[in-house]
Specification:
Helix content of chain A is 37%, strand content 0%. Chain A has 95 residues and is mainly alpha-helical. Chain A has a domain of 39 residues: Orthogonal Bundle (Histone, subunit A). With 485 residues, chain B is of the alpha/beta class. In chain B, the strands form 2 sheets. An 8-stranded mixed beta sheet of chain B has the order 4-6-5-10-11-9-7-8, sandwiched between helices. Chain B has a 3-stranded mixed beta sheet with strand order 1-3-2. The chains are: A mainly alpha (95), B alpha/beta (485). Chains A and B meet through α1, α2 and α3 of A and α10, α11, α12, α13 and α14 of B.
Chain lengths: 95, 485
Amino acid sequence: MTIDLKTIKHISKLSRISVDEKKADKLAGDLNSIFDFIEKLNELKTDNVEPLTSVAETTLKLRADEVKSKNLREQVIKNSPKDNEDYFVVPKVIE
Amino acid sequence: MSDVTKKSLSDLVENIKNKKLSSSEVTKAFIERSEKSKELNVYITEDYSNALDKAKKFDEKPNFDLKLPGIPMAVKDLFCTKDLRTTAGSKILNNFIPTYESTVTQNIWKEGAILMGKLNCDEFAMGSSNETSFFGNVQNPIDKNLVPGGSSGGSSSAVAAQLTPITIGTDTGGSIRQPASFTGTVGLKPTYGSCSRYGIVAFASSLDQAGPMAQDVKDCALLQEVISTYDEKDSTSINFKRNEYSKELTKNIKGKKIGIPKEYRVDGMPKEIEDLWKKGIEYAKDCGAEIVDISLPHTNYALPTYYIVAPAEASSNLARYDGVKYGFRAEGENLIDMYEKTRSEGFGTEVQRRIMIGTYVLSSGYYDAYYLKAQKVRKLIKNDFDEAYKKVDAILTPSTPSSAFKIGEKTNDPVSMYLNDIFTVPVNLAGLPGISIPAGHDAKGYPLGLQIIGKAFDEQNILNIAYAMEEKINFKNNITDWWIK
């Protein structure tokens, strides 16, 4: 299998990472060598194997929906790259 | 003063308890040595003046019943520390100040330890050489031109150079054990679910574990005892009976069955590693252990499995970095453009590569062929270990397929970099505990490590085996302080 530039563009769109031509070329090369390496898994027959999703053999616990931390609004907002003290500010979304 | 930093954690605790040393004296000594060691580039963020204040406060009102009384410590910059910048080695978190503390670090401060600062690491813990950090590579105190391993490279370098008496790292595919092996130090990756993941910047959530890195096994056991707690804030934290690892530590491992997996004799493995392994087997026998040949037939499939599972989980975990709520933002013409530029400029090359791999294997039409396939193979890998543990109590392998390599040597070839983790990755996939202990040197005088892998929740057993073998090995690190002018 080979990953072409069109596929790289598609993945970069899904990943929300902008990629220019030069970077796309380099990524295609890297990803192809990594996928060559990954293809090894096809040697194994796994039709009757259950997938392992977690090694922790626990069921998720339920808990009461309670607020446990103090109101950290101010500190949380302070971490944002752009805000107006009350809200996060992003480029205009709705015309 | 310089003698203070040479002491092990256990010695320092003893000295502070007997009032031979104050917390301030110890903290000052490590800070002074760190100030002279800037060339190693182990710190991303120093917090020295707060550390000295805390040490002074401890000395004014000491509590000697604590397990880490007034002990200064630096930690990997992947642990969120309240009010102190936490970057994960990334530009995208360059200015992030957490509003909460990770459970693991909280456990450490509760026992009296004092934070000195945050240690360098590969960006989002993705790397085996600390070269993917936005804050520059770290030097291995063994030799100026060598990588310290990764991703916990700042941590391994800082412990080996005696800039912190002990530290914590995180291990997703070998990020504690490989750097420990490269620097002649001890590193433990605990059982998945043993240490809380709450407040650790997430990489691959089904694999990530925090663990101690130390000069010796006893110190490692003591820190493991402190950091391993059940935590309801981590939904995969497991409530099991935890040992008092340091108190229950024993060199008596008579009759323990130790497995030697034949599949770990990989093609092209240097003779030095093969010899080290043979020596390790002899040491284990000398300690009274019984050696048993075992098979882990799917070993060769562990790395390809890992390079599907880990990037898939990473691509999902790292979706949160969008330049809106925290971290770096690049301006864009519209919202989508802002996201795309932020992530393109904010993440480094390796992180982008892994997000892309992960996105691809999870994307429509490829999910079954890659991700589901990898989860099935992961099951086979875990089954291998389950079978082996019907016959043995622990497994002995080399920690890495080579000693530390040169800075820049593998940066252009991702696959050759990934091969570094060939002996450590299966342990994460199966969720088991593994410890790397220094066991010898190669011809160049660089340290080599042996790995002891245990059954799930059997940290005490592998610590005991490591403790017994450590005495027989009697390893001495060749560190000359070349970086101190």
